Amino acid sequence: MKDRLQKLLAREDLTPVRFAEKVGVQRSSVSHILSGRNNPSLDFIQKILVAFPQISTDWLIRGRGEMYNSAQASVNNERKRIPSDLFSSLNDEDTPVYLSSKVKADPDERKTVGKEVGKEQHEEAIVQRASDRRIEKIVVFYSDKTFTEYLPEG
Asked: Taking CA atoms, which of 59, 71, 75, 122 is between 20 and 30 Å from 99?
């Protein structure tokens, strides 16, 4: 069972922590099963099958047959992977094209909010502030109560 769980984590590209969150079990339960200390309970197996309906029950419990149900196997193999770094370039055909158009405001409708700052002062402030700051991490929260953290490389 330990080997099948490790194979599932690798195929689904999940860490033990993300797997525990997705399945709805304690992290320590996953850790103990992966280390061989404990065998999974029936409840644990049922939660895996609910979280991953494409997994074959016979494969998960007995290790027989294919890992994925036949209809889901081709879908899983064709699944696109998310790039490991947030800033990698995207394929041009998948990237939407945004067209910008210039809109001129009617002079009568213009309003000035706040006090005006000289262009040089404003640019200097932006450059100075940007060089002092750096991104430490980006966290994306999903509706299924999971999240993904992106950390800068290096």
From this structure: 122
